[in-house]
């Protein structure tokens, strides 16, 4: 499938959404479901959720590339990140930082992150939308040479913003914000493709 942005023929990209919360009764996963639906319905990308709660990776003991017998789940996760043109990380804020499940997954991989366009969706149950996560998460990904893009999507009161299926309470407002956010990520995906070609 192909579509045209700014008169450049652009093969439809692959965007993976990393849903980071492994918490029982989690709410930020609702945002992952919302973005998957939005991206798919608007035919912006081929999109799937990489759910860290489902993967249940063990606590980090070595980088994947140095493991002798990596699990099939780790290999699958690495392959999906590698084959993605862009990544959306959906993360809650826990005590001012991002969850251990996400750090576990970031440290597991290496080259798969290099120059990978990544945009952040942060969530909290309070007023500030998990934005304190950004500093530490962006720094870790910068250290590993990912291409963190200047787009963020903070979600205050995530449990009221989306229902459990990821349907937005205020669809028009949420879709408008999502459109701006995704346009930025897609711009960086396109820019990287040009440089790589
Ligand atoms: C261990 C823990 C620490 C938290 N720390 C913060 C925090 O620093 N700031 C905040 O706004 N919310 C905090 N919260 C509330 C979360 O924002 C809220 O639980 C949100 O729904 C988290 O996403 P989740 O439901 O997907 O896990 C914390 C929650 C947990 C479980």
Write the layout of secondary structure elements.
Layout: E1 2-5, E2 8-11, E3 14-19, H1 29-41, E4 46-51, H2 52-55, H3 72-82, E5 86-92, H4 100-108, E6 117-123, H5 133-143, E7 147-155, H6 158-161, H7 171-196
Parallel strand pairs: 3-4, 3-5, 5-6, 6-7
Antiparallel strand pairs: 1-2
3D structure, described in words:
- The chain is an alpha/beta fold and 197 residues long.
- 40% of the residues lie in helices and 22% in strands.
- It has seven helices and seven strands; from the N terminus they run E-E-E-H-E-H-H-E-H-E-H-E-H-H.
- The chain has a five-stranded parallel β-sheet, with helices on both faces. The chain has a two-stranded antiparallel ribbon with strand order 1-2.
- Strand 3, helix 1 (29-41) and strand 4 (46-51) form a beta-alpha-beta unit.
- It is globular and about 50 Å long.
- The protein starts with a strand and ends with a helix.
- The chain binds flavin mononucleotide.
- Flavin mononucleotide is lined by residues 21, 23, 26-28, 92-96, 123-126, 128, 158.
- Flavin mononucleotide (FMN) is lined by residues 21, 23, 26-28, 92-96, 123-126, 128, 158.
